[in-house]
TrEMBL record:
InterPro entries on file: AB_hydrolase_fold, Peptidase_S10
Biased composition range(s): Polar residues: 36-45
GO MF: serine-type carboxypeptidase activity
Region described as Disordered: spans on this chain: 21-45
Cleaved signal peptide residues: 1-19
One annotated GO biological process: proteolysis
UniProt entry keywords in alphabetical sequence: Carboxypeptidase, Glycoprotein, Hydrolase, Protease, Signal
High-level lineage: Bacteria, Pseudomonadati, Bacteroidota, Flavobacteriia, Flavobacteriales
Keyword Protein transport: no
Pfam family, one: Peptidase_S10
Superkingdom, taxonomy of origin: Bacteria
Protein name (record): Carboxypeptidase
Biased amino acid composition, Low complexity: 21-30
Length: 509
């Protein structure tokens, strides 16, 4: 599985060309960090509140949006950063203690929360076509599938993403930029946010996308051990490897089901496979991958010539590539080469984060695409939308730049044990459930590797009743496809409902 440490989630916004919510500022419309002088002064503690109404699943839902910054404190109580966030609360709820709270992170690790905020779970939705491609004019509309009907949501932006910043250039970046540093300061920030908003009694959920899955998997245990905060659920959207080590053989073999899904989409498989539905075809590939290909790859150069040819023929059959290409790559075709090779004769490349997208390179020759066709498409629509939405709909005005992707280098990715952290959090907390959501056409965090995560994270099989997996016919951001936007939100809605304990049900084994 390809790691996605500086290129993940994306979130777009659309403006008031469609249904505009009513806006009623309850605090000054201009945050303090916007200075009338030539120099900007960052205020790590600011807030703007607006009132809105939307329609979700045919029901009117009034809500309050709080947009602003809240400090990250050091050990001495000094503000060393301010995190930009948007907090959506349904405003007609009488019992806030029983109301679930979802804390949402995107990935990167240098990505803003824009992607899931305005394209997935939030109450507003970016203006794109039904398959996720850009439309003009840019804008935003109501999200009829948002989970705000069943849970309040806060979208959090780590340091250097969106409008989040350190308070001084003198603050060491090592306090923020690393797997474990990131988890540590965000856990402390969540504690502060929950206290400020009086949400300690609420059932709590974390959702993370891409690198955000590394983040929330680590946070599940950190919140328990350091903040004494226990969760009801963790949702992993397009998960990374979660620190679970792959061997050479497994790294090579596990990508094949993704190759097959992509080849099926582009009609590059033999007719007997192509004529099957996607989810009817994939189990055959998965079975071959685990039971035949993985053992064969484990033999490496000791694999006899006849068996090597048999494996190459089957890999070619399932991947849409030629046997010659497979053999030239020693049965292990790199992701980059696959994206370049699959449609080479048609003059196209396929996308990394979503293989349904096609790109055009300068020349057909080469070992990898010139650019990520899908990411360029998404930034096309998301960047104008989020800037318009924050200013026009949420009334948050600042001269600071909204970082779709911010600099978080150097990033310390050592000692990543987040998959094990999540397992341990589940073992310690009988209430804690996990759901994984994956797109079949995601080549960055592919769907079969996400299944492999679950198998390896729980080697005893004792936790599997609290773990579930959902697949969608789209890519890394499966919610950009309208059909999957509806079904994926409904899956979250049902996950929340089913993971809430019944009245009087104790947290015990």
């Amino acid at each position: 599985m390809k790691k996605t440490v500086l290129s993940l989630l994306f979130v777009g916004f659309f403006t008031a060309l469609h249904a505009q919510p009513q806006k009623t500022p309850t605090t000054p419309a201009t945050p303090k960090e916007e200075n009338s002088a030539s120099n900007l002064t960052f205020n790590p503690d600011s807030q703007v509140v607006t009132e809105h109404t939307t329609t979700i699943k045919g029901q009117k839902v009034p809500y309050k949006a709080t947009t602003g910054t809240m400090p990250v404190w050091d050990e001495d109580g000094k503000a060393i950063a301010g995190l930009f966030y948007t907090y959506y609360e349904r405003s007609d709820v009488k019992d806030r203690a029983a109301r679930p709270l979802v804390i949402s992170f995107n990935g990167g690790p240098g990505s803003a929360s824009v992607w899931m905020q305005i394209a997935y779970t939030g109450p507003s939705l970016i203006n794109i076509d039904d398959e996720g491609y850009p439309l003009q004019p840019y804008g935003i509309k109501e999200n009829p599938y948002s989970i705000l009907d069943v849970a309040d949501i806060v979208f959090v932006n780590p340091v250097n993403t969106a409008y989040s910043r350190a308070t001084s250039k003198e603050i060491p970046t090592t306090k923020f930029f690393g797997v474990n540093a990131d988890i540590k300061y965000l856990a402390d920030w969540i504690n502060g946010f929950v206290s400020r908003t009086n949400r300690w009694a609420s059932p709590k959920y974390l959702i993370g996308e891409s690198y955000g899955t590394t983040r929330v998997s680590g946070l599940a245990l950190e919140l328990q051990n350091s903040e004494w905060m226990y969760l009801n659920g963790v949702i992993l959207v397009s998960p990374t490897e979660l620190g679970i080590t792959r061997g050479v053989a497994s790294e090579a073999a596990l990508k094949l089901p993704y190759f097959a899904a992509t080849a099926w989409y582009h009609k590059m498989l033999p007719s007997d496979l192509q004529n099957k539905d996607l989810t009817a075809m994939l189990p055959e590939v998965e079975d071959f991958t685990i039971n035949e290909l993985l053992p064969a790859m484990s033999k490496g150069g000791a694999l006899d010539d006849q068996k090597r040819k048999e494996m190459a023929a089957k890999i070619a059959r399932y991947s849409g590539l030629s046997e010659k290409v497979v053999l030239q790559n020693n049965l292990d075709v790199p992701y980059d080469y696959f994206w370049k090779e699959l449609l080479r004769d048609q003059g196209f490349t396929v996308g990394r984060l979503d293989s349904r997208y096609k790109g055009i390179d300068r020349k057909a020759a080469g070992d990898g695409p010139d650019f990520n066709a899908e990411l360029t498409s998404w930034l096309h629509s998301f960047t104008p939308a989020i800037n318009m939405y924050l200013r026009n709909n949420l009334n948050y005005k600042t001269d600071f730049k909204y970082n779709m992707f911010g600099s978080v280098r150097p990033w310390d990715d050592s000692n990543d044990k987040t998959g094990e952290n999540l397992r341990q959090a589940m073992a310690q907390n009988p209430y804690l459930h996990v759901m994984v959501q994956s797109g079949y056409y995601d080549g960055a965090c592919d769907y079969f590797n996400s299944k492999y995560n679950m198998w390896q994270m729980d080697p005893s099989g004792r936790l599997k009743d609290r773990m579930s997996w959902k697949g969608y016919r789209s890519g890394h951001m499966m919610y950009l496809r309208k059909v999957d936007l509806e079904s994926a939100n409904e899956d979250i809605r049902q996950f929340i409902k089913q993971s809430l304990p019944k009245a009087g049900e104790s947290a015990k084994y």
